[in-house]
Q: What sequence folds into this?
């Protein structure tokens, strides 16, 4: 076998291992929630969360970043909790497709309220916990929202057909649950403005790093100076849109969920609104650090940025 053939074989085997791992972690294990009672399934997930080969790359990266910033201590317990959230979050895709609203009523505690239906508003959450069922709850309360989503492209999807397919079907499920098409934030904000003019709310994950956008705002986050995109926050302030923050967590002992909703109201400035929003996220992380799915990307929040025009050097 020549060098070129050897390289192709190695590439093929690596690709097969990656695709097989994605199938196991995104489809096979989480879909057990379809055939098992939730109490049994959660017990199985708790046992599986102790297996270090599952979700290894993402979990180890997350732990390393959290530990370096003082948000992780017991390695085994932290990683197990992180893997458990990954399994539950992926399982929720299968559950919302196969369970009725009765499942929601049996397994969720809800505090707070959604804004009135057919209201121009921002519904915002974070990459924390497992939020898929919050969309079903919103829908059950008459909320029909457009979810703002990132384009399904980039290096994270290169050579990962299974991951790309999973992202597509999950995004399609979001649109189905909310009753409106999603809006690609990488294309144009015109559809979002059009939706607001028609009294249709927008739903977004707001804790994203600012290294891919031109406009950002500085915040204090997790004890460090960070930057986050300000386009959505600017839209909320300029359009005087009321904001509702929501998140979904779970009890570690039995997997019972909680949905918390908080009416933020209308922000006076981008800076005060950003501080309010990210203070809420920091409180959630302090409550359950492994529940934040972006630990592995946290360096992108805190890396040094070139000052924007008008900012001090």
A:
């Amino acid at each position: 076998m020549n060098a070129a053939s050897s390289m192709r074989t190695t590439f093929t085997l690596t690709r097969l291992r990656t695709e097989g791992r994605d199938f196991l972690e995104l489809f096979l294990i989480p879909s057990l929630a379809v055939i098992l009672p939730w109490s049994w399934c959660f017990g199985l997930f708790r046992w599986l969360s102790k297996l270090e080969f599952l979700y290894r790359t993402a979990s180890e990266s997350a732990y390393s970043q959290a530990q370096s910033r003082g948000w992780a201590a017991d390695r085994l317990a932290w990683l197990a909790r992180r893997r458990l959230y990954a399994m539950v979050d992926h399982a929720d895709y299968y559950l919302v497709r196969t369970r009725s609203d009765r499942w929601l009523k049996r397994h969720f505690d809800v505090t707070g309220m959604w804004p009135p239906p057919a209201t121009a508003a921002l519904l915002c959450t974070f990459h924390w916990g497992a939020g898929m069922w919050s969309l079903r709850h919103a829908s059950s309360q008459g909320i029909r929202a457009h979810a703002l989503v990132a384009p399904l492209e980039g290096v994270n999807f290169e050579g990962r057909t299974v991951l790309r397919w999973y992202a597509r079907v999950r995004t399609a499920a979001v649109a189905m649950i909310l009753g409106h098409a999603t809006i690609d934030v990488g294309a144009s904000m015109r559809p979002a403005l059009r939706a607001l003019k028609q009294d249709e709310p927008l739903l977004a994950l707001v804790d994203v790093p600012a290294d891919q956008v031109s406009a950002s705002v500085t915040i204090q986050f997790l004890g460090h100076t960070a930057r986050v995109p300000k386009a959505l926050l600017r839209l909320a302030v300029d359009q005087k849109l009321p904001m509702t923050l929501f998140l979904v967590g779970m009890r570690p002992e039995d997997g019972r969920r909680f949905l918390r909703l908080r009416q933020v109201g209308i922000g006076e400035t981008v800076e005060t609104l950003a501080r309010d929003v990210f203070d809420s996220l920091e409180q959630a992380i302090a409550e359950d650090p492994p529940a934040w799915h972006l630990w592995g990307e946290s360096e992108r929040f805190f890396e040094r940025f070139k000052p924007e025009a008008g900012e001090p050097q």
Q: What stands out?
A: Residues 3-28 form the longest helix (26 residues). The beta strands are 108-111, 122-125, 146-149, 183-184, 202-205, 216-221, 224-229, 243-250, 257-265. The mean pLDDT is 90. Residues 3-302 form one domain.
